[in-house]
Amino acid sequence: MAASAKPKGTLPSKAIIRLGRWGWTTMWHVMMSRLAPRDASGAYLRPVSEFRNTIGTGADDPYPPESGRYRLYVGWGCPWAHRTLVVRALKGLEDAISVTIVSPSPEAGGWIFDQPENGLQTLADLYQQAKPGYKGRSTVPVLWDTATQTIVNNESAEIIVMLNDRLNEFAKHPELDLYPDDLRETIDRWNDKIYPAVNNGVYRCGFAQSQSAYDTACNELFAVLNEIDSALENQRYLCSNQLTLADVRLFTTLIRFDAVYYGLFKCDRRRIVDYPNLSGYLRDLYQLPGVAETCNLEIIKRDYYGNLFPLNPGGIIPTGSTFDHLLAPHDRAKLTPGSQ
User: Fold this and answer.
1) Residue 32 pLDDT more than 60?
2) Which one of 78, 205, 239, 267 is the catalytic residue?
3) Is 78 considered catalytic here?
């Protein structure tokens, strides 16, 4: 008697499942090792930025303050690059600093120019032009000096400090100081707490390659988010009632949280919209003049869901989230002394 055919729709055999799981897990670790370097425990290790020069304060400096001399290379989806766009907008430096957009390409293995520039096709080409033989990662943002044709800096935390005070004579809002002397200690303290636990913390969750590494990162992330939410109950911004670079650095993570990090990076204990104070704070920052124009949710989702293949092999991009809720009243101005 002939054996009956296996009914359609049933699961593959155990042997096939084990083989498939082994093959996928092995390939996943190989791909993740290139995407996200890790330590022995499986925790993500972010590489250090290598170009660390600065715009000076006078004409004798190697990189003097000049309008039109410097260019930012950014990707719309990248939170680190987004910081520079936000400060550029807040300070009103659009006429003084140009912007070139690059996009991630898994096929090219990095960032590519949306439009070829001076014969260059990829961001890696730009890095090679700045430093022939460069072997490190080619990341955004890049602060480029068009006069010497080289990279000034590729560390976002340092670029935004420069944008805050080194080009004030060309800024539309030179009176806005996002890193004032009297608040620097508080700003730095918040940055030292928020960077590892939140800014990089979401990546430590998403790129973790062991359960223990993920658990550690996730616990730290939500402990600090809870602390921030409590601090914002009685003050408008992180450092009392004055907008600072600490808020900018936090904003570019928060704006991506519910749409990307909550699901794709497994940061799913709580959404930002569920926090009573963080949610209003995010709306407040989003509604500052010029900030919304630096936020493109469709590209953010495309860049994360469409390009991080090891985290989303099917490449399916969710369609449900929008930024419409960020336009609702935030009612946080009342926390500023003297406001009505």
Assistant:
1) no
2) 78
3) yes
| DSSP reduced 3-state for 318 | coil
The whole-angstrom separation of Cα 38 and Cα 128 is 26
The set of residues, in sequence order, having a beta carbon less than 8 Å from that of 282 and lying 6+ positions away, is 251, 254, 255, 272, 326
Report the range of poorest mean pLDDT among 3-7, 132-136, 256-260: 3-7
Per-residue pLDDT, 176: 98
**Tens digit of each residue's pLDDT (9 = 90 or more) over 270-292:** 999 999 999 999 999 999 999 99
What's residue 116's pLDDT? 86
Which pLDDT score is estimated for 16?
73
Using CA atoms, how far residue 42 sits from 29, 39, 222, in Å, is: 10, 5, 20
pTM of the full structure: 0.91
Whether a cis peptide bond, with omega within 30° of 0, leads into 141 is yes
User: Residue 144: in which H helix or E strand, if any?
Assistant: strand 142-145
- Same structural domain, 312 and 200: yes
User: Could you tell me where the DSSP H helices lie in 105-244?
Assistant: 123-130, 156-165, 184-194, 201-206, 211-231
Last residue of a domain, one of 108, 141, 170: 170
pLDDT bin (cut points 50, 70, 90) of residue 102 is very high
Q: Is 203 a catalytic residue?
A: yes
From the centroid of its chain, how far is CA 100? 17
Give me the residue label for tokens 């170009």.
51
Residue 112 near residue 303, CB atoms below 8 Å: no
On whether both 148 and 232 belong to a single domain, the answer is no
Residue 33 Cα to chain centre, angstroms? 20
> What is the domain range of residue 262?
181-335
CATH of the domain at 96: 3.40.30.10
